[in-house]
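Reader question, answered in our methods column.
A reader sent in the components of a multi-part assembly and asked whether the whole thing could be modeled at once rather than chain by chain. We filled in our standard form and ran it. Here is what they sent:
COMPLEX SIZE: two components
ENTRIES:
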Amino acid sequence: MVMKVYGDGMSACVARVLLCLHEKETEFELVPVDLFACHHKLPSFLSMNPFGQVPVLQDGDLTLFESRAITAYIAEKHKDKGTDLTRHLDAKEAVIVKLWSEVESHHFNPAISAVIHQLIVVPLQGKTPDAAIVEENLEKLGKVLDVYEEKLGKTKYLAGDSYTLADLHHVPYTYYFMKTGHAGLVNDRPNVKAWWEDVCSRPAFLKVSPGLTVAPATN
Amino acid sequence: MAGIKVFGHPASTATRRVLIALHEKKLDFELVHIDLKDGEHKKEPFLSRNPFGKIPAFEDGDFKLFESRAITQYIAHEYADKGNQLLSPGSKNMAILAMGMEIEAHEFDSVASKLGWEQIFKNFFGLTTDQAVVKEEEVKLGKVLDNYEARLGESKYLACDHFTLVDLHHIPVIQYLLGTPTKKLFDERPHVSAWVADITSRPSSQKILL
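And here is the structure of the entire assembly that came back:
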């Protein structure tokens, strides 16, 4: 039985999971959830994720939500095929992957998702982006990227010299971010830019990016 | 055994998260006090330990880490055979654990930390509590705790039938919130209330209180 992912490919959090599945060369079925019709808030969906968010993964009798828990599960279950996303053969390298995954989760994600929320989601709700929120979070994001610039001067990828979940988790939101008028935050940092161009051209991501269809406002 | 050191502050929730894990594993360690008022965490040599300038930082011999939830996971795996079990064996059980840790990090902590900041930590800096923010965040926390209430009706602890990192990660912020009016949100939900009483009365939870 193939794994089922409930969601829509335009959601960055769903894309995170799809990207992981492609890197692990794992078959899956994408079960569409109509986000614009708020089907993720219906009781039938809430019984899978009481927080009413996509993605949800079903693998046999296991139901999981939270995209980074799902990617960790997929990477572990299929650790012997596809890309090594967790460095599981070396305990210390494995925890460094977790460390930089925490960095994405706690430092990078709050800033970038706030910008994307203002520039993509808010206009879809018929409202105007809050420029102050965008500016405040661009500043925070810049400081995070300064740390990345230095780290990526020492290692090819964030957790070391191979591509792992720590890099993968960044990709979908960054893809949307690069479509806004603020791509300079990445392009003006040579190591970050080189890393971005590398990770976004991986074959697994080229299968996912066509689904990331929402167009942000460019301001 | 090489020395374990935690670089942080005894009142910091993230530092406490690591200290509780070390106590659960009955490990010896040294807490190196970082002077937050002096901005020590934003300067060298601390920045070499954590370029994001946040406590705690950690070392076990010459192995260095930051991010409290990566550190607790390291402690739980590296010292799996010592002290109390903080994990749950098997890939499906570990997936449930991972999910619980993500929920704590993304759904619970973002709201609970704001409530801690407004009602407690702002006072240390001579700032005033914004009651409008407290009211708004309590509504959000209530919804998260409704989900926890349902879950704890089925399972003694959040991930499974024994205490794990998922429960542990919640303890420091909850301890602070129990000293504020937000305590009522926990008291009003019987399964949550029992769970809170259980996890905050563990010896390791008591050891880190000042």
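What stands out: The mean pLDDT of chain B is 96. Chain B touches chain A at residues 51-52, 63, 65-67, 69-70, 73-74, 77-78, 91-92, 94-96, 98-99, 101-103, 105-107, 110, 147, 150 (CB under 8 Å).
Send us your own complexes using the same form.
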